[in-house]
Every structure is written in C-alpha cells, then in structure tokens.
Specification:
alpha+beta; single chain; 9-stranded mixed sheet
C-alpha cells in the first residue's frame, strides 16, 4: 500500500500569526466550555510569546498544504526561571497542543512536540514541564518521553454560594443537586467563621512592590522547587497580562507577609473566583489565613459560586486549606520531559515544590 502523503507542513510561529492562531484555538472553545480560564485573543498570545522578560517564547504551527493560511495544529513553549538545587535555572512550560479534527492521526501532535523539545535543548533549557488535559496526557507519556512527577498537585474548592457551587461541581442534575446543595450549605456555614488577625492588613493593589522579591527570596529557602516569583516575573505575569487579575498584599507594620492573585472567570457555567497564585512563608499560617479570609469574603460579596485553586498535596498550604474547609476535588497531572537535565531529580524523589494554577497554561 502506498504511503499516504502528509497533508500538512510545520513552521515556527511569527508575530503576524497571532490573529490566525487565536482564531484556530477558538474553534476548540465551544461556547466557552474549554477548561482554560484565560484569554484566547491575539493580544494574549503576543504577550505570552513575544513580551516575556525572561526570553521570547517558542511555538510551532502545522499548516495545511492546500491552504497555506490555515493553521491545523499548534504547540507553544514559554520560558521561565525555576528555583531548584539552590539555584535558578532557565526552564519552560509546554502548552497549547491542539490539532484540527480533520487532521487527527497524522502525527501533528507528536511532530510539533518533538520539534519544540529539540528547540528547547538548543537553547539550554534545563526542564520542560506541562499540565496536559486528559486527551493529550496519554500521548505525552507513551510516545514523547514525558512522565508525571511523584508530587501530587491537587485542585481544592470552597463553596461560597452553595447552590451555584453544587451546579459547578456536580452539574445540573436534580437528583444530585438537592442533597449536594444541603450538604454544601451546612458545610459553608461551619467553615465561614472568621479568622481575624488584627495586626495583618490585607489590601488590593494594582502593582507589585519591590518587597515582593524579598518575600520570594525568603520563601524559596523553604522549598526545593518553585517558579521564580520576583517582581519582574509577577509584573509580567499579572500586571502586563491582557487578562485582568486582582492583586492582594498581606502586611504588618514592618514588612510584606504575603500576596495572593485572583481573577473572576466562568467555570462550568458558573461565575467563579480562581485563586491563581499566592505566596507566604511556609510557617506563616496567620498571613495565609488573612488572605484566604479576605478572598472568601470578596467572592461571597461579588456572588461568585466558589473559590478554586491548586496546591501541592504535601505542602503546608494544603493542610491549612483543609483546616479552612476547602474540599479536595481532583489530582492535576504535572509532566516533565525525561531527557531534560533537571528531570531526573524531579522524577526520582519527592521535592518540596510550591506549585499554583498560575504555573500552568490554564490561567
């Protein structure tokens, strides 16, 4: 049997591809139902790929041979710095791996990921990681030399509006909704008790102060692994990002104690508060409680169904959140490319890793 001719060709992304790339990715977002809770607009991808202070990102496109203006597959790679082994390393996150249904089973996904990993190696990127969806996880692990880290990233939620939270968690099914609503209503009432810390002030700001870098430096000594969260990164990630984020700072009379970043976005048809990032010293539960209390109160006042966040299951944050009544919902797979220099350490041992939703491509 003759070999079927390849109907597509690969090429690297260029700045003037942003409109077409955005239009292609929007075809996978059926009425806003994608698990992504961030923009798919051209300006988002321009920010992500061409305005990164660490270095510009990479992206490979699959182009239809019969229509050279038609994108039929994508993969992106976003550079970041990672604290690991008591040093900062250039790493990158892989994401946006989509293939047109009409071009499935033609090797687009595997080919673009392999090209992206080869580019990363040429740039001396020390680690490639990602948080793939259920559809692409199998391909990464079975065909592309990626493995899941042993640490468990977990999604946790707190119901601020029990009825709406039930719909978001369980769907619009009457036989589930009524008992679920009663349970979450009682649950919320019990755990909404205030954790007041009068010496800690929480305020909303529009930019990160220089002190946030000192907070990161103090915090990283308690973790083996974390994305660098200095002022430069946080300003790019949240202030310069085309999406809107809300920044909270917790401080006392002498210093910054912590920060939290959240955004409002629909999730399963309900308005939700996504607590995308946070950092306090791992022994400063009072500052964390102050931030969490403030966020729950804001979400309730703004009629958001629930507070949604990610954390490592073996971190102090997880245990503090469970004490506050957050429900553990599901495990989030984090994969790393096995051929990258830092992969061996992250795969062969449990590390104290600070990981939030903002470290992933979903937000």
């Amino acid at each position: 049997m003759d070999k079927v001719e390849q109907r597509w060709q690969p090429r690297s992304v260029m700045p003037d591809d942003m409109e077409a790339m955005s239009a292609f990715l929007k075809t996978f977002d059926d009425a806003g139902s994608m698990s992504l809770i961030r923009s798919l607009e051209p300006k988002y991808y321009a920010w992500k790929l061409f305005h990164n202070p660490r270095r510009n990102g990479l992206a490979w496109l699959a182009i239809d041979k019969e229509d050279t203006n038609a994108i039929v597959g994508t993969t992106t790679l976003v550079p970041k710095y990672l604290w690991c082994n008591q040093a900062e390393h250039l790493v990158a996150e892989i994401g946006d791996t989509f293939t047109s249904p009409a071009f499935q089973r033609q090797g687009i996904f595997s080919s673009l990921v392999k090209r992206t990993c080869a580019n990363a190696s040429e740039l001396d990127i020390q680690l490639i990681y990602g948080t793939p969806n259920d559809q692409s996880l199998f391909g990464y692990e079975k065909k592309l030399n990626f493995k899941q880290i042993p640490n468990r990233v977990t999604r946790l939620m707190f119901p601020t509006l029990p009825k709406q939270a039930t719909l978001a968690l369980l769907g619009n099914r009457v036989y589930r909704r009524i008992p679920g609503f009663l349970f979450l209503n009682l649950y919320r009432s019990w755990y909404m008790r205030s954790r007041h810390a009068p010496d800690i002030k929480v305020q909303e700001v529009t930019e990160f102060p220089p002190d946030v870098t000192n907070l990161y430096i103090r915090s990283r000594e308690e973790f083996d692994v974390m994305i660098v969260r200095d002022q430069t990164h946080l300003t790019w990630r949240y202030v310069q990002n085309p999406d809107e984020y809300r920044i909270l700072l917790a401080s006392d009379n002498t210093r910054l104690r912590g920060y939290a970043v959240w955004k409002q976005a629909p999730w399963h048809g309900q308005p939700v508060c996504h607590l995308v990032d946070y950092l306090v010293l791992p022994d400063d539960q009072r500052a964390y409680d102050a931030l969490i209390t403030h966020i729950i109160q804001q979400a309730t006042a703004e009629k958001l169904a629930l507070v949604n966040l990610w954390t490592m299951q073996d971190s102090p944050y997880y245990h503090w959140l469970r004490q506050r009544g957050f429900l553990s919902i599901r495990h989030i797979p984090v994969i790393v490319y096995c051929a990258a220099p830092l992969a061996k350490q992250l795969l062969e041992q449990l590390n104290r890793w600070h990981f939030t939703m903002a470290d992933a491509d979903v937000i």
